[in-house]
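hi! just following up on the protien thing from before. the input was this:
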Amino acid sequence: MQKKIAADLLKIKAVFFRPNEPFTWASGIKSPVYCDNRLTLTNVEVRNDVENGLAELIKTEYPEAEVLMGTSTAGIAHAAITGHILNMPMGYVRAGNKDHGRKNQIEGELKPGQKVVVVEDLISTAGSVIDVVNILREAGAEVLGIVSIVTYGMQKGLDRLAAANVKNVSLTNFDVIAEVAGELGYIAKEDIERLIAFRNNPSDESWIKKEA
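and the predicted 3d structure came back as:
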C-alpha cells in the first residue's frame, strides 16, 4: 500500500522532488520536495486508491470510530469521501471561529464523548493538526487519532504528536516516496540520501549541492 500510494502521488505530481532546484517555504527554508495532495481529488484512479486506503486504515486502526473530522481545508474532501465509503458521519474544524452566524469552529454535529478520527492530507511539523485535535478535545470529543495521506516523519512532528498523546497513521511517508522516486527514475538514486538529510534536519542546508 505504501509504495502504491507513493507511485500514485509521484505520477500525478502531487509529490514532486526537485533536489537540484529547491523550493522555498514561507519560513525561508529550502526544500527539495513540493507536496500538493489536492491533486489527488482530480485524478479518479488515484483518488479511489487514496480514499479506499484511508477507509481501510480507519477500519483497521480505529474500529471504534464514530465520526470523522477533516482539517480545514485540505482534509475536508478526504473526510467527506472516506465518510461516504464507511457510511460514517463527518464534519470539519475551521482554523478559526466564523465571524458571523453561529460562529462555529467545528462544523457538523459533534456530541460530547463521541469517538473521533481526524483526517489530514499532509503532516510535516504537525502543528496545525494538533490544534484541531485540541479543539475537538475541548469540545468533549474522544480523539482516537489521525489518519493522513503523507507524513514527512520530521522529528519535530513526531515529538509534537507524542507530547499531545495522539496517534497518526499514514498511507505513505517521505522515506517510501523517496525510495520509489529513485526506483522509478523521478530522481537520481544518489540523491535519496540528500532528501533524507533534509527530512532529518530541514534547517540544515548542507544537503544542497553548491555550484562549483
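Helices lie at 2-11, 44-61, 74-86, 127-138, 155-163, 174-183, 192-200.
The longest helix spans residues 44-61.
cheers
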